[in-house]
Amino acid sequence: MAYKLVWFVPEEWLDATREAVFTAGAGRIGEYERCTWYAPGTGTFHGGEDTNPALGERGRDERVPEFRVETVVPGDRLEDVITALRAAHPYEEPAYDVYLLAEA
Known about the structure:
Helix content is 20%, strand content 36%. With 104 residues, the protein is α+β, with helices and mostly antiparallel strands.
């Protein structure tokens, strides 16, 4: 079983989050290691009164330049990879998605 992990991160944290997930076991495709795909976009949020945003201000609509990053994760490494991503990410609540990959 394998998964696709997708996360959203400001450019200055791109390499740190990639390194964290690689160290935890993500990013291997066949004989290739440290594989990701990423593209720029804009993240939006409105932090409540109990938030402490790394970028922007609570109580306001914010738009932040971010990268969408994708990599593959073996099923037995998923929990460790997500833990590593959350620890390396600058946001209080990092946005990420996990997709189960079909077996070919």
